[in-house]
Amino acid sequence: NYYKKLFGSGTTLVVT
Hints:
Helix content is 0%, strand content 62%. The protein is mainly β. It is found in: Cell membrane.
């Protein structure tokens, strides 16, 4: 599992 910060949108994509 890892969390990748989506720059520009300011949201976080959570991939398990």
